[in-house]
Amino acid sequence: MLSNIPNATIKRLALYRRCFVELDEMGVKRIQSGELSQKIGIDSATIRRDFSYLGELGRQGYGYEVRVVLEAFNNLLKTEDAQSCVLIGVGNLGRALLKYFSSDKFKKRVFRTPVNLIAGFDTDESLVGQCVGELPLYHLNDLKSYIEEHRVTYVILTVPPTVAQSVATSLEGLGIKGILNLSSTVINVSEDITVHEVDLNMELETLFFYVFQKEQAKH
After folding, report:
1. Is 30 in the same domain as 88?
2. Which of 75, 99, 130 is the last residue of a domain?
3. Does residue 63 have a known ligand-binding role?
4. pLDDT at site 112
5. Could you give the CA distance from residue 82 to residue 104 in angstroms, rounded to a whole number?
6. The predicted structure's pLDDT at residue 153
7. 140 and 42 in one domain?
8. Residue 92 assigned ligand-binding role
9. pLDDT recorded at residue 101
10. Is 93 annotated as a binding residue?
11. Which residue spans does the record list as DNA-binding (predicted)?
12. Is 91 annotated as a binding residue?
């Protein structure tokens, strides 16, 4: 159960899963923890400890069978029961995400994400009724009824910072489980909704600090 897994491990699970999806697509059958460590930049001891929460996935000296690990992720995430997601805010970033999630590269992955993006919403009347890739665009006024009809449980928020909180507040009580917030401002919602904040400016600054620290360590 995810509730028994430390937060630090949970943050690495998506990276592990993406790596094993790529290995499977490349036809790799088995990989040693040392090889995996070099590939993703996480030490072997941490990988083995993280994987221990998923069950008995590997043996010492033998490594991990790619399909066995992917099956463990599928069982954990229940990927056969994909959750529906919508994107709110079809600006440059929102449009780019819609194009990515409707691209052949994303759709052809053997092991899909447990969350499927199915539509976009905006207040710009000129966008309503159009599609980005195969994904339809609707007016924000139709959001509540759409969420209820399609049983949407996840939202990607790419609206301007000035309206992010009001939009997030409007999602309360609609059955939304999680929000991926890309609006570059912190939002506050009820405890029923899990919010994952991703600020691209902060991520770039964090990268700068990592590089700076590495360069300082050389002197």
Report:
1. no
2. 75
3. no
4. 55
5. 18
6. 95
7. no
8. yes
9. 84
10. yes
11. 15-54
12. yes
109 and 67 in a common domain: no
Quick one: DSSP state of residue 116? Answer: E
Check residue 149 and give its pLDDT.
Answer: 96
> Which residues of the chain are modeled with pLDDT < 70?
1-3, 58-61, 78-81, 104-113
62 with 148, same domain? no
Determine the pLDDT at residue 135.
93
Positive or negative CA dihedral for 114, 118, 122, 127?
Answer: positive
Residue 115 belongs to some domain of the structure: yes
Confirm if 93 and 77 have CB atoms less than 8 A apart: no
Q: Is the residue at 103 inside a domain?
A: yes
Give yes or no: residues 113 and 197 share one domain: yes
Number of domains in the chain: 2
Q: Would you state the structure tokens that stand for residue 43, as one six-digit string?
A: 């030490």
Q: Which of 42, 75, 108 is the last residue of a domain?
A: 75
**Domain of 103, in residue numbers:** 83-201
What's residue 173's pLDDT? 95
Q: Is 89 annotated as a binding-site member?
A: yes
Check whether residue 29 and residue 103 sit in a common domain.
Answer: no
Residue 8 φ then ψ, to 5°: -60, -35
Beta bridge partners of 65: 30
pLDDT tens digits for range 76-119:
776 556 789 999 999 999 999 999 888 766 655 544 567 789 99
DSSP H helical ranges for the chain: 7-25, 33-40, 44-52, 66-77, 92-101, 104-107, 143-150, 161-170, 200-217
> Is 60 a member of any domain?
yes
Asked whether 152 and 86 are in contact (CB, 8 A), the reply is yes
CB 196 within 8 A of CB 181: yes
**Does residue 215 form part of some domain?**
no
